[in-house]
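Go through this chain for my students:
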Amino acid sequence: MTPRYGRVLLKLSGEALMGEQQYGVDPAVTTQVAKEIAEVQALGVQVGVVIGGGNLFRGLAASAKGMDRATADYMGMLATVINGLALQDSLEKTGINTRVLTAIEMRAVAEPFIRRRAVRHLEKGRVVVFAAGTGNPYFTTDTAAALRAMEIKADVILKGTKVDGIYTADPMLQPNATKFERISYLKVLEQGLKVMDATAISLCMDNKLPIVVFNLRTAGNLRRVIAGEPVGTTVTAE
């Protein structure tokens, strides 16, 4: 099988790591994600990962309750580092060399993010987990994913969620919502669809970087997306 993409940026929400728990990291989930990544890496695909921190701390929620927004965002960034280390552990147990690169320097646990070093790790066949968002408050991990994808010249952003694509409304709340096979960046912005935040979508639109939204909970889906099968929803210019 010839992969459709040579280098990908996988975006995972922090909530994806909770499994059925209410909080924290479920090792069974990180192990499953690690196996999915191992499958595509075996095809020669280079993989970068950005993880959110919402399973441990949500900066926006805390700032809504009165905490200083910048402080809350920095705490959220630190939560993504915890998630990054958890995923690194599972990946290395699967036999995959992994590096965590963090936008906030903390040399005892991870390497600082340096773009050329990140690309070199990918070229050497290592999975690179980008932690601590962009390193700046007021930016989401979606925007961090778009930014890192541009910096490493990824072919696509793969957004792993718990639904199988983008719908006209939340399919959990409205069962008659219809799914888009393909949709343009502009339509996502105009219709206010909750795919990624507007900054991230605009960044992808300006740089013509496609996004594929798919259900990460379905085993084998990551490999299917890489193979070019019609899985999830693709966001492009047209």
The mean pLDDT is 95. The CA atoms of residues 14 and 54 lie 5 Å apart.
